[in-house]
Amino acid sequence: MSALKGKAALVTGASRGIGAEVARALAAEGAAVVLAARDVTRCEGLAAEITQAGGSARAIGCDVARASDVEAAVALCRAAFGRLDILVNNAGVIEPIRALHDVSADDWGRLIDVNVKGVYHGFRAALPLMRRAGAGTIVTIGSGAAHQPLEGWSAYCTSKAAALMLGRAAHLENRGRGVRVLSLSPGTVATDMQRTIRASGINPVARLPWEAHVSPEEVGRAVVWMCGPAADEWLGGEVSLRDEALREVIGLGPRQGT
Ligand code: NAP
Q1: How many DSSP H helices and E strands does the chain contain?
Q2: Ligand 1 centroid distance, CA of 176 (Å)
Q3: How far is CA 8 from CA 83, 85, 100, 133, 213, in A?
Q4: What is the rounded CA–CA span in Å between residue 110 and residue 244?
């Protein structure tokens, strides 16, 4: 498996969940990876695992809400691997999960700092390099929440709608420079985030059976597919893993559960 041999990727929120599986999948296809998240110890553990399996990986502590942290992660990728071909804007949070009138302005704003400004910081740090190279792929992990309002999720739904629009704007500005911009809406995925959602009990997503969620490994495989020309039809738009026909194209098979 070497579809991405010679390429270098940065994955934000790579310490666990979807980000960790995306990093494993990219590395398994031969990409060198930089793993960025606040929990640098977990990123280092995953980097060691990838290295032991014959891949190349580096870890860096990074809060995507801080532009300078994301710039440092891009700089590490360049210093370690000499290039940046793929950025996966994956880092995200679901909390605060509360009715809009009941959330503190600081907590609501912190989610926007991570889920919207964090994605913006990724684009801002990666685009100059990719534009100069005349090539690159930026995948942002989106959500059905970009299109669907849900009780208790005003900040999250707003953030995912904003991140989707950010990607569409970035596509318009960069499609002529060889930079591929796409969003991935994975459906519900079996990670810590869904455990937090379930514990809240606040809306219908919280009441989904665990078997309804797809595995983070599937999301990793989808991101690898999105890095190749087969996904060019979706540039500037959103790949949804709820789309059964598309799942077949990607090679994921029918969706289990809801
Ligand atoms: P998760 O299990 O809670 O993991 C979240 C990841 O984001 C962790 O690696 C976390 O690492 C990182 N992160 C959180 N805040 C960060 C920050 N300020 N700076 C850097 N990294 C940060 O969640 P997940 O399910 O894997 O979600 C990953 C992405 O998929 C999110 O954007 C989420 O909205 C999206 N998504 C998830 C689902 C789902 O059902 N799970 C569905 C649709 C979309 P640290 O804590 O170490 O920083």
Answers
A1: 9, 7
A2: 31
A3: 6, 5, 40, 13, 30
A4: 35
- Domains (range + CATH), the chain: 8-195+207-238 (3.40.50.720)
Q: How far is the CA of 209 from the centre of ligand 1 (A)?
A: 20
- Residue-level pLDDT, tens digit, the chain, 258 residues: 689 999 999 999 999 999 999 999 999 999 999 999 999 999 999 999 999 999 999 999 999 999 999 999 999 999 999 999 999 999 999 999 999 999 999 999 999 999 999 999 999 999 999 999 999 999 999 999 999 999 999 999 999 999 999 999 999 999 999 999 999 999 999 999 999 999 999 999 999 999 999 999 999 999 999 999 999 999 999 999 999 999 999 999 888 755
Asked if 120 is an active-site residue, the reply is: no
Q: Which of 141, 183, 215 has the most ligand 1 atoms within 8 A of CB, as the residue to mutate?
A: 141
Ligand 1, pocket residues at CB < 6 Å: 12-13, 15-19, 37-39, 62-65, 90-93, 114, 141, 143, 186, 188-189, 191-194
Residue nearest to atom 48 of ligand 1 (CA): 38
Give the Cα separation of 226 and 46 in Å (integer): 23
